[in-house]
Amino acid sequence: MPIYEYTCHDCRRRVSLLWRSFEDAQTRTPVCPRCGGQRLTRLISRVAVLRSEDSRLDDLADPASMGDLDENDPKSLARFMRKMANETGEDLGAEFEEVVGRLEAGEDPDEIERSMPGLNTPDGPAGGGDDFGVM
Fold first, then answer.
1. Three-class secondary structure assignment of 68-120
2. Which residues contact 33 (CB under 8 A, 6 or more apart)?
3. Under a CB-based contact definition with an 8 Å cutoff, are residues 96 and 85 in contact?
4. Looking at the structure, do residues 69 and 114 belong to the same domain, yes or no?
5. Residue 104 counted as domain residue
6. Rg (CA), the chain
7. 31 within domain boundaries
8. Over 90: is that where the pLDDT of 5 sits?
9. What angle do CA 125, 89, 52 make, to 5 degrees?
10. 51-101 residue pLDDT tens
């Protein structure tokens, strides 16, 4: 059962219509459920593309996706960190939010690291070791 979106030229609203079949959608006249108008124009609907987590993370690792990343600009680092966090879909906790918030305010990353000594320890969010969590 297809759902099509239309613009109603009478009430100027965008409406969605559920048809019983593709044949009905092709042969019957659409009627606006809001005003009863019959002057509707079918719209091209948005589509969603499902991607695997691996595919999304591969795109993040692609240097081309880092376009405006400037490692010397705290605000640029914060934008990239938020982008990565949104792609993973995981809650990275209060410390992550604090670090990114401070970067967005323009604070120097080295100063943030000095003021938050637990960031790169085995008990911290990075899991210890270097900046990538490698011991």
1. CCCCCCHHHHHHHHHHHHHHHCCCCHHHHHHHHHHHHCCCCHHHHHHHCHHHH
2. 15, 17
3. yes
4. yes
5. yes
6. 25
7. yes
8. yes
9. 120
10. 787 887 787 777 776 777 788 888 888 888 888 888 777 788 888 899 999
- Residue 13, CB-side half-sphere exposure with 13 Å CA sphere: 12
User: Do 99 and 63 reside in the same domain of the chain?
Assistant: yes
- pTM, 2 dp: 0.46
How is residue 17 written in tokens? 């219509």
Domain boundaries, position 17: 3-42
CA 107 to CA 135: how far, in whole Å?
Answer: 27
Query: What is the total residue count of the chain?
Result: 135
Alpha-carbon distances, residue 18 vs 3, 13, 22, 57, 80 (angstroms): 4, 16, 10, 36, 40
DSSP β-bridge partners for residue 17: 4
Q: What share of the chain is helix, strand, coil (3-state, %, to 5)?
A: 40, 10, 45
Q: Are 79 and 103 in contact (CB under 8 A)?
A: no
In this predicted structure, what is the pLDDT of residue 24?
92
Q: Is the pLDDT of residue 135 over 50?
A: no
